[in-house]
Design goal:
The protein is mostly beta strands and 240 residues long. Helix content is 8%, strand content 66%.
Length: 240
């Protein structure tokens, strides 16, 4: 993770160098468009279960899980692009409307209410969705005619909504929703037709900060999770 964050700084340093170049402010173009995205979400986490019904239990029971899921979504983008000869700089933001599920996991526990280990079993389902996903980015670019090769650095913010079903006896838990941020690193190629038609093919990795959620009910259990997202995308837009 640390190495990825260090690598994330390199395009930003290059970008500031490009900003200092004699790019005329009046030559900034505006581009709008849509993007088709195919990605993989890899998540891992642990639930620390504090079951006060078990006499003499001083340490939490820890349940761990990993999950990978492929997602296909669409987004819209708005960006500003400048160019001076072979060098260019693009800044912009991208938004994914709607929401998307990032997986569901279920497990079966015994209801230990009353201190007995012979209680009825119950199924607990952990599930989450993300919405309001917005990415702010900067793309330093080297041009070869109408084609450009660029690096990408930026940040993504999103709302993580917990949709778990964890409600049985003393093992009940309700977790709050949370806003999550992550660093973006990637790159791609872009083609700008003289008519203004813009096409981009891109690869991107997003590494989110570790997530920590404390239950507001029941045993006040705790969830710790990490989410990584990798994607490839094809964007089509209009630059003017």
């Amino acid at each position: 993770m640390r190495n990825k964050l260090i690598s994330l700084l390199l395009p930003i340093v290059l970008a500031f160098g490009l900003i200092s170049m004699p790019v005329k402010a009046t030559e900034w173009d505006v581009a709008i468009g849509v993007k088709a995205i195919s990605g993989d979400v890899d998540s891992s986490g642990s639930e620390h279960e504090f079951d006060t019904a078990v006499v003499g239990k001083t340490t939490p029971e820890v349940n761990t899980a990993t999950h990978s899921e492929s997602v296909e979504v669409g987004s819209i983008f708005l960006e500003f692009a400048a160019r001076d000869g072979a060098f260019g700089l693009t800044t912009g933001f991208e938004h994914l409307p709607g929401s998307a599920s990032i997986g569901s996991k279920a497990r079966t526990d015994t209801d230990l209410s009353g201190g007995s280990e012979g209680g009825a079993s119950a199924t607990y389902t952990a599930k989450a969705e993300v919405e309001d996903v917005t990415t702010f980015y900067i793309d330093p670019t080297i041009y070869f005619g109408n084609f450009g090769i660029y690096g990408k650095a930026g940040a993504t913010i999103l709302d993580l909504n917990t949709l778990e079903t964890i409600d049985s006896g003393t093992n009940s838990s309700t977790y709050p929703n949370k806003r999550v941020a992550g660093g973006v690193l990637g790159g791609g190629i872009r083609y700008l037709h003289p008519s203004g038609l813009l096409v981009k093919l891109e690869y991107q990795e997003t590494n989110f900060r570790p997530i920590k959620l404390q239950s507001t009910t029941g045993n006040k259990n705790m969830i710790k999770a990490e989410i990584d997202y990798t994607s490839t995308s094809l964007a089509i837009g209009w630059q003017f």
